[in-house]
């Protein structure tokens, strides 16, 4: 059995990955990863009511949607697939790994138009299963972890073959990193595709707007049997250790704001693995609504929150807020990135030059 934790080429096969591998703990255009919700309706351009300023976007509008931000400095995106009808979903999430999934066409489009853009793909079954859970269920309605890990690997390979630079399993199944690594090795893709593991993903109430955006809420129960208990630091460290042992190239803690102690502990225990935080939909919406109500200035509070994440040990940050910081504009992202190039230039200039601890 291969020791994937000693096979390193996948960790630095792209310029952005090489920057992350340098462990540069400072704001720059490399820090931020922008989540994009890709609809299977090519003509989609839909506002997400619970996630201010964000949209579900189809491939016909994707390049126009992202072009100003990319031109202004955005280096990385994280793609999520969204199916437009429940009739397309089934018990095993078949469309997570076969035609009809909107992610491969989006990858092809982005790679052709923006060859230097790092394309990461979230890998999970929840948006594709009829029950909305992140894995395959057994006859008792519980997660079948082994079968789920195999299905997660199927989806990861589907995205890898389409040209993804990074696959990011967010399902929290035991053994899924090894399943993905073995599948990549079998297809001679091991040194071409990195694995960013959502290693410490907690069963959090902060995910509400995302589940609306991705149309992926569970139809019964919750995800507390496989996502981590919010109060358990020990399990979080064990989960990170599990994924490091299985060969994860990078680690993530999700959510961010309420879990900076976990970020710090993971960073201290695994200093040689790039560490990401997902500043999730509820965290972003909380700041946006608070600013809209006049409780605080959005730009200033965002800098404070993101700065605290950097201080705790984060090297890359996935957030819908990375393009939304400006003075007095809420939301900033409307239509097709109205003034987005100006906004992101201000944001990156502020992060790189003007931010002071």
TrEMBL record:
The protein's annotated catalytic reaction(s) are: 2 5-aminolevulinate = porphobilinogen + 2 H2O + H(+)
Q: Which Pfam families match?
A: ALAD
One GO BP annotation of this record: protoporphyrinogen IX biosynthetic process
Q: Does the keyword Lyase apply?
A: yes
Q: Which InterPro entries match?
A: ALAD, ALAD_AS, Aldolase_TIM
Kindly state which keywords UniProt assigns to this record, in alphabetical order. Answer: Heme biosynthesis, Lyase, Porphyrin biosynthesis
Q: So what does this one do?
A: Catalyzes an early step in the biosynthesis of tetrapyrroles. Binds two molecules of 5-aminolevulinate per subunit, each at a distinct site, and catalyzes their condensation to form porphobilinogen.
How is this protein named in the record? Delta-aminolevulinic acid dehydratase
